[in-house]
Amino acid sequence: MKKFANLLEQLLFTYSTNRKIEILATYLKGLDYKEKGITIAVMTGNLNFKNIKRSNILNIIKSKLDWYLFEQSYDYVGDLAETIALIWPSNGSSKQKDLNKIIYDLKNSKSINNTIVAYLNSFSSKERWAFIKFILGGLRIGFSTSLVKKSLAKYGNKELYKIENIWNGLEYPYENLFLWLENKGSYPTIDASKTFNSFMLATSFDEELIEDVKSSDDYYFEYKWDGIRVQLVAKNGSTTIFSRSGEDISNSFPEIKINCTELLVLDGEMLVGQNCLPLPFNQLQKRINKKKPSKKLLSELPAFVKVYDILYCSGKDIRNRTLYDRRKKLEEWFLNNSNTNLDISELINFKTDNELKKIYQKFSYIEGIMIKKKISFYLNGRKKGYWFKWKKDPKYIDTILMYAQRGHGKRSSFYSDYTLGIWSKNKVIPIAKAYSGYTDDELNKIDRFIRKNTIAKYGPVREVRKLLVIELAFDSAQISSRHKSGIALRFPRVSRIRWDKPVNDVQSIEEIKKELSIYHS
User: Fold this and answer.
1) How many domains does the chain contain in total?
2) Could you tell me which of 100, 143, 167, 307 has the fewest CB atoms within 10 Å of its CB?
3) Which among 193, 290, 291, 302 is positioned nearest to 240, based on CA atoms?
4) Are residues 385 and 409 part of one domain?
C-alpha cells in the first residue's frame, strides 16, 4: 500500500499531463502482473468491493471517534479520505502491505468493519488516505481513464488506438493485456457482440468558421437531436443498448430490437414519440431508468433511435473507414432492412446562410447542428478537427443562491455546487442546480460569501441568506411536474455573478413561465 499511496500522491500533485503519463508507465514496470492489474482496475474504477459501502466507513467513524469532532474536521478538510487519514488516532508501522493480500482480506472478511479498522490502525496517515480511496473508489486525483490508456501505450510502446479498440472488452486482472504490451503474448481478443465501443465525440464549433466549412463540401451537416446517445449492438437476434457511459439499458427500451445474424453496431440518439417524431426531452425522461416500462408507457411514449453512424457491418469492424464510406454503408443497410423503431438521421442541405439558420432554429427538439468531416475515421473520444457541435444560443435567467455544497477532488475545499431559486409570491423556491460556468476567482469570492452568510447547516449542505443573484445560462426549458418550480432547465450553468443586482429584481416564476411560452413557440 505504501508504493500505491506514493503513486496517488505523486499523480495528485503533478500538473503536467505528459509527466503524469510517464509516472504511471514507470510505476507499472516495477510490479508483478497481479499488482499491475490491481493498479489499472483501481485507476479506472473497475475494482469494486460489493461488501463495502460508504455507510461502513461512517459507522466505523461513529464507533471510534468523536462524531462532532469528525463533522467539524470533515467540513474544514472537505475530503473524506483525507479527513480520516488525519484524524485517525493511531499511526501504524511503515511495513509494506501487499495489495493482493489486502484485496483478499477485504473480499473474504466475515466482519468487514473489524478488518477495515485493523488496516486503518496498521497504516501511516498517507496509506490510510490511499486505502479509503482504494476501497470506496472515486480517486479524484486528476487522472482519467483516457490517461490510463495513454500510460499503457507508453508502457508497451504500442499505438493508442489498438488499446482503445479493445478496452471495453478487457477485464481485471488484465493479464492478457500486459502480456501483449510486453510482447509476450498475442493481441487480446474480445467478444465484440458483448462489448461497448467508446463513442466518438464532437468539439464546440466556432461560428466564424461557417463560411469556410459551408463552401468546402468536405462536411456533412445533421441535426443535433435532444435525446440520449446510445449504441446498438446486435447479433444472432439479440440486441444490447448501451448508454453514453457504457451501461446496458436494454431493459428500459424493450421495443428496440434488430433482427440480424452477423454483428451490427449502430450509433445514434434515443428519442420518444409516435412515428419517429421526437417529443421534448422531459418526455424521454419518463422512460429512462424504468427497468420494466408498463404497456401504457410503451404505447404512449414509444422509443426510437435516430441512427447517424455504423461501426460494425456484416460482422466487420469499419471504424477505420471514412465517414463518407460509413454513411454509404448505413444508407445501404436502411434500404435493405425495415425497422419501425430505427430511423436514419437525415443530412441537412442548404444553399444560403439564412436557410441554414432557419434549419438550425427550426424545432424545439433540435439542440443544434452537427458538422462532421467526411474523411473522419471513427475515433474514440473527443478528437479536434473532425466532428463539431453547433448548439443553439443559450437562454438566461437571474436566480438567487439558496444552498451550497462542497465540491469533490480539487474543489473539495470550496462550496462549488449551488441550488438556485426564483420568487414565487413572497418565497424563494428552487429552480435549478449548477456546478460549473464560474472562474476560479469567482469561485473564491462565492465561497467567501457562503461562509459569511450561512444561516443553517444540513450535513454537507449550507443554507445562505438570500442575497446573491446569479445569472444562469441554460439550453432549453420545459414544463415539469417533477420540479417544485414547475420548470425543468436543460444544462444549467453559471453565466455571471450579479453582485450589483438586488434580489428583489429577480423575476417571479409566473413571469418566467410567460417567457417560456415564447421559448416554446
Assistant:
1) 3
2) 100
3) 193
4) no
